From TrEMBL:
This is Glutaredoxin-like protein NrdH. It comes from the Bacteria. It comes from Acholeplasma oculi. The lineage of its organism: Bacteria, Bacillati, Mycoplasmatota, Mollicutes, Acholeplasmatales.
Length: 86
């Protein structure tokens, strides 16, 4: 099971979350997260934001659940739930 992470360029919160995933979690979930960047994949990005009603970034999508609170605790809980790694 994998999750999607919606991001865009010039987004301080997106950069902060990516740093946490890389260094705080040692890239443990790197192969489980599909990054959908607004500038790199505009069509999919717009489809997902419309489908899930996402208004703020960064945002995770797993199954039919959306997470926009990207502090470490909710991020880890979301990834453990949707990816299954601890």
């Amino acid at each position: 099971m994998s999750v999607k992470l919606l991001t865009k360029n010039d987004c301080p919160q997106c950069a902060q979350l990516k740093m946490f995933l890389k260094f705080g979690l040692s890239n443990k979930y790197e192969s489980d997260i599909e990054i959908v960047n607004k500038e790199d994949n505009k069509d999919l990005f717009e489809k997902l934001t419309a489908e899930y009603g996402i208004l703020t970034l960064p945002a995770f999508i797993g199954a039919d659940e959306v997470l926009t609170r990207t502090q470490p605790t909710p991020v880890v809980a979301f990834l453990e739930k949707h990816v299954g790694k601890k």
